[in-house]
Specification:
The protein is built from eleven helices and no strands. The protein is an all-alpha fold. The protein has one domain: MetI-like (MetI-like fold). Helix 5 packs antiparallel against helix 8 and helix 6 packs antiparallel against helix 7. It is globular, with a radius of gyration of 20 Å.
């Protein structure tokens, strides 16, 4: 079994998922940080649910939703003629939902720590709310963005339950590294499982250590 195919597929999945989560998660995080709506606790609960839900439970309901007879899956079949489940596209959707809190919460915390006076100064200088968001809020919240990007990428890379339920184990399509490790263990190929596992362990250590160093330097500033 190819050792590098699943690693490369996992890296692709994590990269695409992280890009989408930054684009989608930033507005959500901004709204949660600034809103006084009574719906905020409910939205926060929905965003955070993937943290506490068992991956198999989330994967099961995503399998129903994205399946050919599901609300989203049937619509996708009508448009594209192919199913979302057991496909790379389905994995991306599932991964975005599963890793959503790991992107939103760090960005939300960064936005909440941003003094409102900075935005008010930008508004008085003629900047629109959108301009102030991109020229003031985003640069000053870079620490939260970095944390969200790192955590989202690393969390997606290590997924197992959700990707197994939604994507199965199709070589070159949905067999990510966590599924490949499980396959190696089931076939008693511990040497291959060790190699893949060590790559993930080393990657997780490097990524987290780098994030902590960056956060410490920002704090020292």
């Amino acid at each position: 079994m190819n050792l590098y195919g699943p690693l490369w597929l996992s890296a692709q999945l994590a990269f695409v998922t992280t890009i989408i989560l930054v684009i989608v998660g930033a507005p959500v995080a901004w709204w949660l940080a600034r809103t006084s709506s009574q719906a905020k606790p409910a939205v926060q609960a929905v965003v955070a649910m993937p943290i506490v839900l068992p991956p198999t439970v989330l994967g099961f309901y995503l399998l129903i939703l994205l399946g050919p007879n599901g609300a989203v899956g049937s619509w996708w079949v009508q448009i594209t003629g192919s199913a979302l489940t057991f496909s790379f596209t389905g994995l991306v959707i599932a991964s975005c939902i599963y890793s959503l809190p790991f992107a939103v919460q760090p960005m939300q915390n960064a936005f909440e720590s941003l003094p409102k006076s900075y935005l008010e100064r930008a508004w008085t200088l003629g900047a629109s709310r959108l301009d102030a968001f991109f020229s003031v809020a985003v640069p000053l919240s870079a620490r939260g963005f970095v944390s969200g990007i790192v955590l989202s990428f690393a969390h997606t890379l290590g997924e197992f339950g959700v990707v197994l339920m939604v994507g199965g184990n199709i070589p070159g399509e949905t067999r990510v590294v966590s599924i490949a490790i499980y396959d190696h263990v089931e076939t008693l190929n511990y040497a291959a499982a060790h190699r893949m596992s060590l790559v993930l362990v080393a990657f997780a250590f490097i990524v987290l250590a780098t994030m902590f160093v960056i956060n410490r330097r920002w704090s020292e500033r």
